[in-house]
């Protein structure tokens, strides 16, 4: 593990934050795409349509459009990050406009009505999530030193993230979880951080915001006025859709590097 690096200003954070706001994917967990997830989801959607008496689409048709919708949604997310205050994609919009845009009206109406559970199922099937080494120690250390941890994360379905934290026993270690699908806005909209700050009774200036992407996280922390914006390196950090002028206050390799940075302020 390498130590933290600054953005070139030569200064590491001097003040202990009152709250530590963490992104989910890339910070709390590392994620990988599950091979075959679209086929599994397509089979379930096809069965849903069949139960309603609709037989106008094959499983292959459904899988093709699920894959197309997911790809188009990724491009939409990249373009949304250029806006100052983007709203989040709704579950209904994703299924009605991104997946089922060319389906017969009846089939489109059905998946739109079932959009929320379908997004949840897509989140469960599409990614494998592994809690990053050092996260449990980081959260425990924060609690013992009076730093309140929270989650602030973009998500097509935040319920999937809540389930993972509960499964790992981490849900009781964080004070609040803010997910974009539940809030209706998405990073880099600074309102994501402001929602957490209002819930915790802290000003953004007394928080550290930690994320793994330049165009979502570094930009959001800067816009929200976080005391320090920390970039934690993950598999997706190098994927930068376009140049972002804002730079993190400090960069760490992993949760253990973040803990070392905090410990320096405690001593």
From TrEMBL:
Pfam family, one: Hydrolase
Record carries keyword Nucleotide-binding: no
CDD domains: HAD_like
GO biological process: DNA repair
Keyword Hydrolase: yes
InterPro entries: HAD-like_hydrolase_sf, HAD-like_sf, HAD-SF_hydro_IA, HAD_sf
Record Gene3D superfamilies: HAD superfamily/HAD-like
Domain of life: Bacteria
Entry GO terms, CC: cytosol
Molecular function per GO: phosphoglycolate phosphatase activity
Keyword line: Hydrolase
Protein name: HAD family hydrolase
Native species: Bailinhaonella thermotolerans
């Amino acid at each position: 593990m390498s130590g933290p690096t600054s953005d070139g200003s030569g200064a590491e954070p001097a003040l202990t934050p009152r709250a530590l706001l963490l992104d989910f994917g890339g910070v709390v967990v590392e994620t990988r795409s599950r091979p075959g997830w679209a086929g599994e989801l397509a089979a379930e959607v096809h069965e849903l349509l069949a139960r309603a008496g609709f037989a106008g689409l094959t499983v292959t048709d459904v899988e093709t459009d699920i894959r197309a919708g997911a790809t188009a949604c990724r491009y939409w997310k990249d373009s949304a990050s250029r806006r100052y205050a983007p709203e989040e994609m709704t579950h209904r919009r994703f299924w009605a406009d991104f997946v089922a845009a060319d389906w017969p009206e009846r089939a489109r109406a059905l998946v739109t009505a079932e959009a929320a559970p379908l997004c949840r199922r897509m989140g469960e099937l599409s990614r494998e999530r592994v809690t990053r080494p050092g996260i449990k120690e980081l959260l425990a250390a924060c609690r013992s030193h009076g730093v309140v941890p929270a989650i602030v994360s973009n998500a097509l379905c935040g319920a999937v993230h809540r389930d993972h934290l509960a499964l790992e026993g981490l849900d009781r270690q964080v004070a609040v979880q803010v997910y974009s699908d539940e809030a209706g806005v998405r990073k880099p909209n600074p309102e994501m951080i402001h929602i957490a700050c209002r819930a915790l009774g802290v000003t953004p200036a007394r928080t550290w915001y930690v994320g793994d992407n330049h165009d979502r996280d570094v930009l959001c922390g800067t816009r929200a006025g976080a005391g320090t914006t920390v970039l934690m390196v993950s598999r997706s950090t190098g994927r930068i859709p376009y140049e972002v002028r804002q730079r993190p206050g400090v960069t760490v390799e992993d949760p253990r590097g973040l803990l070392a940075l905090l410990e320096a302020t405690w001593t």
